[in-house]
C-alpha cells in the first residue's frame, strides 16, 4: 500500500481527493467506448490517476494518420496493424501495472453494451458518431450510470456530463444527429483541442468517483481554441417526451439486429457485420489467390484487392471495405469475396 500511495502522493496531497478519495478511485470501474483521439488521452489520465479497473472497446486498428493526435500509439503499432484496443492496453499496462486494464477489439452494439457496462461506475465517450453516443446514453440512463460526453473536430471542442436522476440526457440536448458530415476525417482536427476535451472528461470522472460530484458543472461547454471563443450553456430541464430519460423506452437499445452495414463517415470505409466470426488462418488461404497483397496478424487479416479496395477481416465477424463509401459497391465486393 505504501508503494501505491507513493505513486499517487501528489494527487493525494490535493485536499479534495486525499487518501479517502484515492481509495474510492481505486475501487472504481470505468468504461471508455472508443480508443482514438479522446479515448487515448482519457485512458492515459485515468490509468495514471489510479482508477482500479479500466476497460475500453474499439473496433479499429492503428493507422499512420492517427499518430498526430492519438497519444498512446507509435509507428511500430502502425507497421504491425495493431488494433487500437490491443496497442492501448499494452501501453497502459506499462504506465501502471497495479490496476486492472482490459482492452476489447469490438464494435460496441446493442448486443454487447449491457455486458460491457456490468458493474461500471462511469461511461466515457471516446467515439466520433452519435449513433454510438445515443446507445451509451440509453444504457447509462437505464442503469443509472453517469455518462461523460465529449467531442472534438477542427479547432472546436465540446463536452458535458449527464447524470441519471440529476440532469437531462444527451438525447434531450441533441434530439437529432445533425453533424453536417463534419468529422476529423473530413475537416481535420488539431491535437491540442483533443487534449483539452479529453482532459476535461477525465477531470469530470475524477470528481464523480472521488466523492466530489457536487463540483461537476451541469452545463454544455463549447470552445474554439483557434478563434479564442468559449461558451457554456445550462442543460435545462429534460424534454417531457424524451424516450430515454423520461419515457424510458431506450430506443437505441431496442434497435437490435439493424445497421449491419455502416458507412464510416469521411474515411472511405464501409463496415459489414454479417458472420459470427472469422477463422483468420482459414481465410488467409481463401483470399491469398484473389488478393494483390495479404497481411495477417493475430488480430486481423488485411487483403488488398485487384479492384483497388481493401478488405479487413476481424475474428469477431466484422469486415471493413476500405476505399469506398458506396454501400452497394461494398456489398458487391463482400458478396464476391466473402459471401452473403
From TrEMBL:
<protein>
    <submittedName>
        <fullName>Thiamine biosynthesis protein ThiF</fullName>
    </submittedName>
</protein>
<dbReference type="GO" id="GO:0008146">
    <property type="term" value="F:sulfotransferase activity"/>
</dbReference>
<dbReference type="InterPro" id="IPR000594">
    <property type="entry name" value="ThiF_NAD_FAD-bd"/>
</dbReference>
<dbReference type="GO" id="GO:0004792">
    <property type="term" value="F:thiosulfate-cyanide sulfurtransferase activity"/>
</dbReference>
<feature type="domain" description="THIF-type NAD/FAD binding fold">
    <location>
        <begin position="8"/>
        <end position="243"/>
    </location>
</feature>
<dbReference type="GO" id="GO:0008641">
    <property type="term" value="F:ubiquitin-like modifier activating enzyme activity"/>
</dbReference>
<dbReference type="GO" id="GO:0005829">
    <property type="term" value="C:cytosol"/>
</dbReference>
<dbReference type="InterPro" id="IPR045886">
    <property type="entry name" value="ThiF/MoeB/HesA"/>
</dbReference>
<dbReference type="GO" id="GO:0016779">
    <property type="term" value="F:nucleotidyltransferase activity"/>
</dbReference>
<dbReference type="InterPro" id="IPR035985">
    <property type="entry name" value="Ubiquitin-activating_enz"/>
</dbReference>
<comment type="similarity">
    <text>Belongs to the HesA/MoeB/ThiF family.</text>
</comment>
<dbReference type="Pfam" id="PF00899">
    <property type="entry name" value="ThiF"/>
</dbReference>
Amino acid at each position: 500500500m505504501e508503494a501505491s500511495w507513493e505513486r499517487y502522493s501528489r494527487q493525494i496531497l490535493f485536499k479534495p481527493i486525499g487518501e479517502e478519495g484515492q481509495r474510492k478511485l481505486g475501487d472504481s470501474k470505468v468504461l471508455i467506448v472508443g480508443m482514438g483521439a479522446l479515448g487515448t488521452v482519457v485512458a492515459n489520465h485515468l490509468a495514471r490517476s489510479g482508477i482500479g479497473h479500466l476497460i475500453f472497446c474499439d473496433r479499429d486498428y492503428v493507422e499512420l494518420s492517427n499518430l498526430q493526435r492519438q497519444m498512446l500509439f507509435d509507428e511500430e503499432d502502425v507497421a504491425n496493424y495493431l488494433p487500437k484496443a490491443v496497442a492501448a492496453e499494452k501501453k497502459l499496462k506499462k504506465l501502471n501495472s497495479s490496476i486492472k486494464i482490459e482492452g476489447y477489439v469490438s464494435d460496441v452494439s446493442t448486443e454487447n453494451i449491457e455486458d460491457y457496462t456490468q458493474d461500471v461506475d462511469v461511461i466515457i465517450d471516446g467515439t466520433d458518431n452519435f449513433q454510438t453516443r445515443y446507445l451509451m446514453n440509453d444504457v447509462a440512463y437505464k442503469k443509472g450510470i453517469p455518462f461523460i460526453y465529449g467531442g472534438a473536430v477542427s479547432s472546436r471542442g465540446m463536452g458535458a456530463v449527464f447524470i441519471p436522476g440529476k440532469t437531462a440526457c444527451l438525447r434531450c440536448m441533441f434530439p437529432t444527429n445533425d453533424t453536417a458530415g463534419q468529422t476529423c476525417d473530413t475537416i481535420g482536427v488539431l491535437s491540442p483541442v483533443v487534449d483539452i476535451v479529453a482532459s476535461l472528461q477525465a477531470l469530470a470522472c475524477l470528481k464523480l468517483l472521488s466523492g466530489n460530484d457536487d463540483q461537476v458543472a451541469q452545463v454544455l461547454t463549447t470552445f474554439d481554441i483557434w478563434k479564442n471563443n468559449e461558451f457554456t450553456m445550462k442543460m435545462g430541464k429534460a424534454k417531457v417526451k424524451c424516450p430515454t430519460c423520461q419515457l424510458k423506452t431506450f430506443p437505441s437499445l431496442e434497435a437490435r439486429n439493424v445497421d449491419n452495414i455502416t458507412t464510416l463517415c469521411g474515411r472511405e470505409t464501409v463496415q459489414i457485420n454479417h458472420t459470427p466470426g472469422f477463422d483468420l488462418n482459414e481465410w488467409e488461404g481463401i483470399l491469398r489467390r484473389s488478393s494483390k497483397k495479404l497481411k495477417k496478424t493475430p488480430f486481423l487479416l488485411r487483403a488488398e484487392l485487384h479492384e483497388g479496395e481493401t478488405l479487413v477481416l476481424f475474428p469477431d465477424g466484422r469486415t471493413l471495405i476500405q476505399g469506398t463509401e458506396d454501400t452497394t459497391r461494398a456489398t458487391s465486393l463482400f458478396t464476391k469475396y466473402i459471401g452473403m
